[in-house]
Amino acid sequence: MKESALRRKTVLLVEDENEVREIIQLILRSRGVEVVSASSPDEAIKLAESRNGAIDLIISDIVMPGMNGPTLVRKLGYLQPGVPVLYMSGYPERDFEQLCAADNVGFLSKPFLPDELVEQAETLVAGAVAQG
After folding, report:
1. Per-residue confidence (pLDDT) for residue 1, from 0 to 100
2. Using alpha carbons only, what angle is made at residue 56 by residues 62 and 46, rounded to the nearest 5 degrees?
3. DSSP strand E in the chain: where?
4. Number of alpha helices (DSSP H) and beta strands (DSSP E) in the chain
5. Which of 3, 84, 100, 119 is surrounded by the most beta carbons within 10 Å?
């Protein structure tokens, strides 16, 4: 079995629903990922500003109170440009295709299976490594 592209990587996870955030953390940590977790966009910005190490992937809910995922990612972009992003949303009726048109951006519709999360995250991180 090949080693995961996620192993020893750092993911910034931004999800306002506690249960969803905890499950995603468990899934990622079981794959050897360091997860820096935030329950709000403002908390995510503070965490990113205070980090010494690089963030290899941002996983963010799209619809959150106070600030949406794309706005958060734009604000984080000045700290660490070029970081791949995996957006998630429980609103499948909305059209997020334009949001996910960039090469280093993916999308998962909630609910999703653990393997779908890992596969998307691995693909994005491997693509960033190949480009960088």
Report:
1. 46
2. 60
3. 10-14, 34-38, 57-61, 85-89, 105-109
4. 4, 5
5. 84
**Contact by Cβ (8 Å): 51, 44:** no
Range of the domain at 104: 10-131
Residue 11 gets which letter from DSSP? E
Residue found under tokens 């020893």: 8
Amino acid identity of residue 41, one-letter, is P
One-letter amino acid of 20 = V
The SS3 call for residue 3 is: coil
Are 43 and 88 spatial neighbours (Cβ–Cβ below 8 Å)? Answer: no
Say if 1 falls within a structural domain: no
Output the domain CATH number for residue 118.
3.40.50.2300
User: How far apart (Å, rounded) are the C-alpha atoms in residues 57 and 48?
Assistant: 12
Residues forming beta bridges with residue 80, ordered by sequence position: none
pLDDT in tens, the chain (132 residues): 456 778 889 999 999 999 999 999 999 999 999 999 999 999 999 999 998 888 999 999 999 999 999 999 999 987 888 899 999 998 865 666 666 666 789 999 999 999 999 999 999 998 876 665
Q: Is 4 helix (H, G, I), strand (E, B) or coil?
A: coil
